[in-house]
Amino acid sequence: MSTTRLLVLGGVRRFGRAHGYEVRRELMSWGSDEWAHVNPGSIYHALRQLAKEGLLLAHEVEESEAGPPHTDYEITDAGRAEFLRLLRCALATIDIRHPEMLTAGLGFLTELPRAEVVELLRRRLDGLAEWRASVAPHLDEQDPSDHLRELLGYWVHSAESATRWTRGLIERLESGAYTMAGEAAPA
Fold it and tell me: Which residues form the Transcription regulator PadR N-terminal domain (predicted)?
């Protein structure tokens, strides 16, 4: 999975049609350069690559009073499908090597229906339970004088903390937090 792909597809999708600077400005305002290691160059590269793959349409805009020539991007049906696939994976999958995928997915949480997000998060809980269960026995087997116990303890603690947070998010969603896809905005 690619965090940059998810962020760029989602950014363009939110705008409807946008040029690279708009997408970059939006993603940088989220701090994505810090937590997802997405730099401006990778955003522009992703825009061009996603257009080459047919996930975005590139529209060349000539110089005008509004500004210099640039390229506007618009998401295609294939791009929408890829965005939703990446978003679903980000919310449901445990990947300790790439926690930024979940963070990116949370930025687009409301792009899916409430019931679907809750189901994806329940799958995430299953994955966290499996991860914890795979690590915890090794912690008990580890020699108490071996400092590597701390690594295993950290992983167990991380799984438990992520489980508590995920359960809390499910509770908030089930209580009606946020306006999700297909729902009317509160009056």
Answer: 14-83
pLDDT digit string, tens, across residues 57-94: 999 887 667 667 789 999 999 999 999 999 999 999 99
Q: Is the pLDDT of residue 1 over 70?
A: no
pLDDT for res 86 = 98
Residue 182 in domain: no
Query: Do 76 and 128 sit in the same domain of this protein?
Result: no
**Contacts of residue 131, Cβ cutoff 8 Å, sequence gap at least 6:** 94, 96, 155, 159
CATH number at residue 73: 1.10.10.10
Widest Cα–Cα separation across the chain? 71
Domain shared by 87 and 120, yes or no: no
Count CB-CB contacts under 10 A for residue 18: 20
Q: Which residues contact 38 (CB under 8 A, 6 or more apart)?
A: 3, 4, 7, 27, 32
Total domain count, the chain: 2
Distance CA 5, CA 162 (A): 24
